[in-house]
C-alpha cells in the first residue's frame, strides 16, 4: 500500500512538473508577459542581447583637454520596435480596414548605412567635365529617386540625450575613426571606449572653443552674443563645436561643410544634436535667402574666397545681413610668406570693392584674425568711380532664386528703408514684426495669425495629445515652415528646428531668419542634404497633398524614413484623403501609426529593415 502511495505521488509530481514546464514555455513565447515577468519574455531577451556592451560610467568633462567622457551614467539601450505610447486614447479605429491595410511593397536595402542620394550619385559625378570648383560636392540627384531603405549600422543604439550628446556620442552610431587620427593635434574628436568624445577644440582654437568665442566678443563688444547677434553661419564647421557652444549663449548656428575627405563631420554634428547641413560653396548659391545671417564665421575653412573670380566672397556678401559681420581666422591674415601675402592682397581688393570695412584685426594665440562688416547702405558703392563687381539687377536677386542657381558675379543692392534695418534684440526678435514684412501690411496680419495659431496647436495638441515622448526630441525639422510659427511655439523646449521652405511655395525664409530662427530652401521631390537618422521628429503641415501632384508620394516617404531616427516621429497635418494614402505606406515600413481628431497622423519609426 505504501508503495502504491509513493507511485501515485510520483506520477502526480511528474504531472505537475510537466504543467509548469508547459506554462513557462508559453510565458517565454508570448510578448504579453513583459509586465508580469519582464526578465522572462523573449522580447526582453532579444532587447537585452542587443545591449551586449557593459554599462560605462564616464568620469570627467570633455570640455577640457581630458580624453575621458563626461560625468554621467549611460544606459546602453537599443531602439524599440513600437515606441508609441499606446496607453493614450487617440482617434484610431482599430477595426477600420480602410485605415489599417498595409501597402504591399517589396522593399530593398540600400548598400550603405550613410547613403545620401543626391551627394552619392557616382554615375553623375563621373560624367562631370570639371571638379575644379567643387562641382563634385554639389547636388546630383538620381532619376528616378531611389526607393531603397537605408540599413542601420551594426550595433546601432538610441542616441545619447541632450546635452550629454554635445560632448559624446556612441561610436557605433557613426563608426568613422578617420578624423581621430587626422585631427589628433587639434582636439576635434577622440575615441574613448564605446564613445567618440568632443573636447571642444578646432583647427584655429586648439585650446578650447569657449575661450575662442569669448575672445571674439572681447575683440568686438558690439557683437553681443545672444542679444544683437542671434543667427550665425559657420562655414567649414568641422564637428560643429563652435555652433554647439554658442547654443549656451542663445545663438543658433547653421553649421555646414561638404561631404568630403573630412569623414562624417556633419554626421557627427547632427548626432551630437547640433544644427548642421551638408553644403559647399562651389558654383551654385547656398540654399539661403539674401541678407539672412547676423554673423558668418570661417576658421580656416579651406574656402578660397579670392578664387573663381571672387564669387565665393560675393556669395557671403549676398547672405550676410546689412551691417553684419564676417569673422575670418586664417593663416593669410598675418603670415608673411609670399603666397599668403598675395591671398591677403586679393582679399583686401575684393572686400574694398564690396565696401566691406575691417572693424578688428588681431591675433588669437598664433592665429591671424580679422572681422569685416558689411555696409548698411549703398552710399559707399555709389561713390566708386568704377563699379567692379557691378550692382545686381532685380532678376538676379528675386525671391526663391537660391535653388540650383549659379553664384552671383554682382553685388545685390542693400535693402533700403525699414526692410534694411537690424532686427530687435533677442528674444523680442522672435515675436516682433519681422523687418522683411515692415512694408507689407497684409503679410503682417498673416504672420500674427500664424504665430497665434501655432502657439495654440502646440500647447493644446502637440505637447499633450499626440503620444509623443518630447523628452527624447531634440533635432526637429518642419518640412513646410511658413513663417516659422511651429518653431517659435517650441522655443522654450530643449530642441532646435530646421525650418524648410519648399521652393515651389511662397518664399517666407527671410521672415524666419528675421525672427532669429534658421532654415533652408528645398524641393521635397528630391532627397535632402543630410545623413540618415539625423532627426528625432519631422513635421509636415498641409505639404503632402500639393506635393503629391508633382512627385511620387512613395519616394517622399522613403526620404522621410531615411532622415528619421529609429524611435523618432513623423507628425502630419493634412486632409483625410492624404492621411489615408500615407498610412498604408508607413505601415508597409513597419512604422506604428495613430490619428488624432482625424487631422493629425503620428507615425513612429521602428528599427525594422528588409
From TrEMBL:
Which top EC class is given?
transferase
Q: Where is this region: Disordered?
A: 59-78
Origin organism is Cardamine amara subsp. amara
TM region positions: 12-30
| Pfam families for this protein | Methyltransf_29
What Gene3D superfamilies is this protein classified in? Vaccinia Virus protein VP39
What is the E.C. number? 2.1.1.-
One GO term of the cellular component aspect? endomembrane system
What this protein is called in its record is Methyltransferase
Where mainly found? membrane
Q: Which family does it belong to?
A: Belongs to the methyltransferase superfamily.
Q: Does the keyword Mitochondrion apply?
A: no
